[in-house]
Amino acid sequence: MDGSQLSGCSRLLSPSGKTMLLLNLYCYVQPLANARLLIWYEVAKWDAPRHPRIVFTLIDLRMLEVLDDPPATAENMKASKERAYFSGGDAVFCEFSTTLDAGLHPISAPAAVTTSATSG
Questions:
Q1: Nearest to 58 by CA among 30, 39, 45
Q2: pLDDT tens digits, residue range 22-55?
Q3: Domain layout of the chain by residue ranges
């Protein structure tokens, strides 16, 4: 694998050395019980001026699929500013806004969207 194409990316490898997940810069990861992984990152004001937010993704590591071409995927991620890329994983996504108007606000967790499609 060409190191320059993967520079700035973190990879999750299978026991056989296959790439299962790519993360771009500024992603945070927390392993959880039952082979689950929590990934989160901020979509900052300069990237999304109307909707800065923190995105959380929960995946099942047992459901991840091998990525076909990690170097090409990494290049595409960088070009499109995607933060995470994987296939499978039985992913659950949720987002929290980082901007609120002044005052008191009741906050509850949003309904999560479940998908097994590739994440971005």
A1: 39
A2: 999 899 999 999 999 999 999 866 666 677 888 9
A3: 3-99
Predicted TM-score of the model (pTM): 0.76
Alpha-carbon distance of 72 to 66, in angstroms, equals 14
Look at the block and give the residue holding tokens 């992984």: 37
Please check whether residue 78 is in contact with residue 17, taking contact to mean a CB–CB distance below 8 angstroms: no
Contacts of 92 (CB under 8 A, 6+ apart): 57, 58, 59, 112, 113, 114
Say which residue the tokens 């001026």 belong to.
Answer: 49
The number of beta carbons lying within 10 Å of the beta carbon of residue 83 is: 21
DSSP secondary structure of the chain:
--HHHHTT-EEEE-TTS-EEEEE-TT-EEEEETTTEEEEEEEE-TTT-TT--EEEEEEEEGGGEE--S-HHHHHHHHHHHT--EEEEES-EEEEEEES---SS-----PPPPEEE-SPP-
